[in-house]
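[Help] Beginner question about ligand-bound structures

Sorry if this is basic. My supervisor gave me a protein sequence and a SMILES string for S-adenosylmethionine and asked me to "get the holo structure". I don't really know what that means in practice or what format the answer should be in. Inputs are pasted below exactly as I got them.
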Amino acid sequence: MESERKVVNIVGCGPGGAAYLTGQAHQAVNEAGIVIGIPKFLRLFPEVKRKIELAAVHTDKVAELVAGLDVSHAAVLVSGDTGLYSLASFLRKALPGCWEVRFVPGISSVQAACALFCLEWHDMRIFSLHSRPAPPELAETVWRGKHPVAILCGPANRPQSIARKLLSGVEPGPDTCRGSVRRRRSKPLSGIEPSRRCYAACDLGSENQIAWSGILCELAEKRFGGRAVLIIDRR
Ligand SMILES: C[S@@+](CC[C@H](N)C(=O)[O-])C[C@H]1O[C@@H](n2cnc3c(N)ncnc32)[C@H](O)[C@@H]1O
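Answer (accepted):
No worries, everyone starts somewhere. Holo just means with the ligand present. The predicted complex, written as structure tokens, is below.
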């Protein structure tokens, strides 16, 4: 027998701005009997009649809302791509079983930032400091400098404060033990060069978009907002 499950599409909307929306995103929204999202993303779909506007997309709140919907298709709008530090996977787990959850891919802020600076990202290491502290691997990966590093910033972790912390942080231990680096957390940093090339992409897709490139010690003096992607080049 055909499944009676209803469908909720979690739609990656890119970093913001109509130019970043995909045809699949439009299709999923057009099929939906109701669309849930923050105003910034709902504004990208002015044709939508039935919508629920949220101040912020919180997993529990959205799951509760979707559970009570009386439509066969719904859409939840999320930023960037559904596979990169996205609420999409939390929502998938939280949504009730009578809903079939589908992901609609979007252009991630990291992809958009890389394109802006003509950078490739196939061997990039990606970290998120959006509402979470920096893991020890971040400083270590930058210090080793084998891979470019992309960092999703946040209100509490703006590009310049990350630069300052990296320049005054903690040095990974210099010795390797069967390929892995031993860390000495108490030793002051001396390893990350102030002249390391870096890029900050702020408010992508908006009229306030900033694309800045320079070196780490210059970035430490800037005053960028937290809706930003910081890319630190390899050594
Ligand atoms: C919760 S994460 C979601 C990432 C998203 N899934 C993606 O693929 O871009 C939110 C972070 O993405 C980055 N971001 C999202 N939109 C952005 C934009 N318009 N400009 C710059 N960075 C953005 C910021 O680092 C922000 O803190």
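A couple of things worth pointing out: Residues 15-16, 79-81, 84-86, 108-109, 130, 152-154, 201-205, 227-229 surround S-adenosylmethionine (CB under 6 Å). The chain has two domains: 6-107, 110-232. Feel free to follow up in the thread.
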